[in-house]
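Holo model, guanosine-5'-monophosphate. Inputs:
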Amino acid sequence: MAYAYDPQNIFARILRGEIPNSTVLETEHTLAFRDIFPKAPQHVLVIPKGAYVTYDHFFGQASEAEIVDFARTVAKVCEMVGATADAGAMGSRAITNAGEHGVQEVPHFHLHILAGRPLGRMLDMAEAE
Ligand code: 5GP
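Output:
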């Protein structure tokens, strides 16, 4: 599968240090930072440093080191911002939008981690009708 990556997308520019961000956690392969327009009290975006467009691109073509680093960073961020769902915790939601139907605004793979309020049901098929 071929994916066309736009190196001028806003998250590529954040990774190059051209645009500031509010970093939550940075590792060798991954950056986590606060969403500029938060949809919940906690809204963190986790992105790989590599040039991946969507989650299927990343999980299909990234190295094992990148994938493990990404996954462990997600877990650490959840712990840092109170987005765990272990006993007694309030839970959270992780979302990744892809492509036109997924209404992906920024074409660099990112996982939204949302927490700090009740988040409602995920999707309603009635919306599609
Ligand atoms: P998408 O719709 O692609 O899943 O989500 C893109 C997210 O990126 C949106 O929630 C939007 O608020 C966030 N965003 C867009 N531009 C910037 C920016 O310059 N900095 C940060 N931190 N977030 C951004």
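The first strand starts at residue 23 and ends at 26. The chain has a mean pLDDT of 96.
Archived with the compound record.
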